[in-house]
Design goal:
By secondary structure, this protein is of the alpha+beta class. The protein is about 25% helix and about 30% strand. It has two helices and seven strands. Strands 1, 2, 3, 4, 5, 6 and 7 form a seven-stranded mixed β-sheet that branches. The chain starts with 11 loop residues before the first strand and ends with a strand. The N terminus is likely disordered.
Length: about 140
């Protein structure tokens, strides 16, 4: 499957549109259920080679974390990120036979371009090591 250039990161690309299609089959508008109950939608999935490690980035839009009017702070969103890692990222990695040392789950209050600063955007990030079908917090 050919992925549009906007999904590219460094040298590799994950078939993001396939994952988006799978989510669309199970819920409207690519929404993903999370513990906080906030609406979360997949923006993109990227593979990023950093030195000797491969990082798998799962980027989500979560409008309710907005700095000025949002109701969801980091403490409420943190369990959401663990949940997304374990229930969405790990099965996806297994299904596509991907290898990666780090999984990054990010939430942003709006769509942002990867690697481009957006001082108006609120963004939360967590990194995990995939170990024995679970996500171990990396604490970067």
């Amino acid at each position: 499957m050919k992925i549009p250039a906007r999904y590219r990161c460094n040298t590799d690309v994950i078939p993001t549109l396939v994952l988006a299609g799978m989510l669309a089959l199970t819920s409207p508008a690519l929404a993903v259920d999370v513990p906080s109950g906030q609406p979360v939608e997949l923006q993109e999935v990227l593979v990023d080679n950093l030195g000797t490690e491969t990082w798998l980035r799962f980027r989500f839009i979560a409008p309710r974390i907005a700095r000025e009017w949002g109701e969801i702070g980091f403490a409420d969103a943190e369990p959401d990120m663990v949940h997304l890692c374990e229930t969405l990222a790990l099965p996806y990695i297994a299904e596509y036979g991907l290898k990666g040392e780090v999984i990054v789950i990010s939430l942003a209050d709006r769509a942002t371009e990867f690697g481009v600063a957006d001082p108006d955007a609120t963004q939360f990030f967590e990194a995990y090591r995939p170990v024995d079908n679970t996500c171990i917090w990396e604490g970067l």
